[in-house]
Amino acid sequence: MIERELTLRNLSPLALHAERSRAQFTPGLDYIPGSALRGAVAACYLQSHGPDDDFQALFVAGQASFADLLPATDRRAGRLLPATARLCKRYSWDHAQSLTDSLLRLALADELKRVDPLEEETWTLCPEEKCPEYRIKRDRASGYVISDYRQIQRVQTTKRLLTGTSINRATGTTQSGMLFSQEAIEEGHCFRGVVRIAGDDDAADSLSRRLESVLQVGGWLRIGAGRSRGLGLVEIVDWSDPWPGPSLEARWSSFNQAVAALWRRYGAEPEKACFSLTLESHLLLRDEAQWPVSRLEKRADLGSLLGLEGVALKRHVIQSAIVRGWNAQQGLPKEDEPALGRGSVFFFSVETADETAVRQRLAEIEAEGLGRRRAEGFGRVSVCDPFHYAFVIQEMQEAKR
């Protein structure tokens, strides 16, 4: 498998609808979904080369997987804050130093069956000047950050409201009662995401070079709604290798060290190895009866759903989502499907006898993803994400001082 990071910049407002246009106002997304990117790239490919063998491999056989492109800079990729992120409730990003994560403390509170890990004032209150005095707490945070696991910087998009009217074809004038508005991302933002090409090295490399020849640096794409009205024009800025991060082995070790340190601080000792799964995109799962799966707790088929045997779900913080889409070939909307929303986090324990097999399977999950429609970027997962343990390690070091 080959991974290449794609960077785009929108040259005109970008309207990516979060819901179907059923009302006068349609909210917009603040990122480029992998499904929208895949459709735009496929259209560009057909226009330049037609439905050749490489097209069949990339888009029909699904060897190319297009990630959601998140707000970023022209040098670094952004990442979505997980649902366990916490920030100053009153001042939000003005007190960026208050950013922390709650996953391990939530898991510990469940394990101990008491709430003191969640009520420790040095953690619950914003540490910025005067916030402790006024008892200002931390609360859920959302958005995107650029992180090298040592320093975290916020990255965001700005939106505008576009308003239009329908035209009466008979009179050529404005149609009465047909005013509509939609949110669009202002021009000039960068978006980055990783494109994966599956297959053996030679075949994947050939397909990767083919794709990059279609999406040449400096070229254009049209993405989203309102393309015939000048919206959705994006420029291909760069193809590059993804920014390297810690290996799975290093993250597994650091995650369990942080778990052990936090548990011991409250007089407990973890009995089993633990790991987390953090959803970087929506996850579409279906059970044996082909019903959509919107929750994982208390499921007897958890092992078969994830391909992980010998694990137990101890804690989760989920965000629900409905995945919508449009089939350009058929000219019809895709079926709406419930999903586990991106940013959702799951904390598992693993039986010692199964640890080796579990770690091998987790490596596969990170590389290949989970669930359905992975070619559209769904099902991308991070294992033992450093965001969940970096703050805990820092807290333990400060406590020793």
Overview in brief:
This protein has 401 residues and is of the alpha+beta class. It has ten helices and 25 strands.
Detailed description of the structure:
The protein is α+β, with helices and mostly antiparallel strands. It folds into two domains: 162 residues, Alpha-Beta Plaits (2-Layer Sandwich); 153 residues, Immunoglobulin-like (Sandwich), CATH 2.60.40. It is built from ten helices and 25 strands. The strands form eight sheets. Strands 1, 3, 4, 13, 14 and 15 form a six-stranded antiparallel beta sheet that branches. A four-stranded antiparallel beta sheet has the order 19-24-16-25, with helices on both faces. A three-stranded mixed beta sheet has the order 2-12-11, with no helix packed on it. Strand 17 and strand 18 form a beta hairpin. The longest helix is centred in the middle third of the chain and has 18 residues. It is globular, with a radius of gyration of 23 Å. The two termini are 45 Å apart. The model has no long low-confidence stretch (mean pLDDT 89).
This entry's quaternary arrangement is single chain
Put simply, the count of helices is 10
The percentage helix is 25-40%
User: Could you give the count of β-strands?
Assistant: 25
CATH first level of the largest domain: which class? Alpha Beta
Number of domains: 2
What does the radius of gyration come to? 23 Å
Structural class: alpha+beta
Shape: globular
**Largest pleated sheet:** 6 strands, antiparallel
* Mean pLDDT across all amino acids: 89
Flag low-confidence runs. Answer: none
SS strand fraction: 25-35%
Supply the CATH architecture of the largest domain.
2-Layer Sandwich
Query: Termini separation (Å)?
Result: 45 Å
The CATH topology of the largest domain is given as: Alpha-Beta Plaits
